[in-house]
Fold this sequence. Notes:
By secondary structure, this protein is of the alpha/beta class. Helix content is 21%, strand content 22%. It has four helices and ten strands. The chain is globular, with a radius of gyration of 18 Å. The two termini are 15 Å apart.
Amino acid sequence: MEELKAAGLTVHRISRGSSNNFSNDYSGKQRKLYLRSRIETPIDKADIIWDTKSFNTVILFPLFHELSEKVLSLFSKSQLVFLDPSGFVRGLGEKNKDGLYPLIPSPWSNIEKFIERVDILKLSHEDLAGIKFTPNTKTDEAKCQQLVGMGFPLVILTRSERPTVVVGKHLKLTKVPALQVHEVDSAGAGETFGVAFVYQYFRTKDPIQSARFANICAGLKVSGQWNP
């Protein structure tokens, strides 16, 4: 927090007796995420006591059920709301011998509370497993289009080295190539993509150009060439 303050950012802290704490396991071919401890009470509307009316953009990155959907009522239709729902599609497996809980796919049970409140929904391929689609909706592209039909104006699906899918209410489905790099560490790729996308989108209002920019930033992050 002190580093953020030193950079000139205004920082607010919400206190809890415990917080979400994670461990990464790099022993296999793919990184595995484990939960060490979890927040005792999700962040709610009443916890945010500062003025939010001056925010032109809101970026929400829940990691494991630490955010209440009631927070959305703080923001008006004129404010751009970006959501990465990874934290809403994660459940807990059995505790292992180290006392850690593996994160497993879990249904996004309150997705309807976010419809028409979120302007940009950004998902990873893994997140799709937690969303209920109609039986004949099989492909990534069809699932993204169905999310738009449900009421999310702009949907972005990142798929590691595969092209990113971008589709919206007034935007035909487009596949944006990912930056092809040697992956060193995938941790933080989604956050890097999300912030980069919003930054470029706020400047250009062009979702395709923003996805290209975000793919480059995420690729540099996972390759170890850049540490934002």
